[in-house]
Specification:
The chain is an all-alpha fold. Helices cover 67% and strands 0% of the residues. The chain has one domain. Helix 3 crosses helix 6. The longest helix has 18 residues. The chain is globular, with a radius of gyration of 14 Å.
């Protein structure tokens, strides 16, 4: 079995394979910007997560997405860790009811990183 390596370069492709529900968000991003802007796209992913949590906090898709983000953040790729931290965790809306619920669903690793922004 081949181990798939998550790094900054492979991240979005692997994210879309893991969470195909994000493909329309990605397609809209490409339509808007004519190319992939990773940090901007992660803002789109953040809004997707917040909406998904609001619609169904027990969503299997949400669990899959957050687990993938944890795996990405657990790599040694500093550029990828920065992407997840700065453009996902830091972008979570503190003024929404979903914030505390999403925080609870995060892995210990991501929750610790999120606490740096409090």
């Amino acid at each position: 079995m081949i181990e798939v390596v998550i790094n900054f370069k492979s991240f979005v492709k692997l994210l879309l394979e893991t969470v195909p529900e994000l493909i329309p968000v990605y397609d809209e991003h490409i339509d808007d910007y004519d190319k992939l802007l990773e940090h901007v796209f992660m803002g789109d992913v953040t809004r997707f997560v917040e909406q998904l949590y609001s619609d169904n906090s027990d969503s299997e898709c949400l669990a899959r997405l957050l687990e993938f983000l944890d795996r990405a953040f657990s790599t040694d790729d500093e550029k990828l860790k920065e992407l997840v931290s700065v453009s996902f965790l830091e972008n979570l809306s503190r003024d929404k009811k979903s914030f505390e619920g999403i925080r609870i669903l995060l892995s210990a690793n991501l929750a610790k990183e999120l606490s740096k922004y409090d």
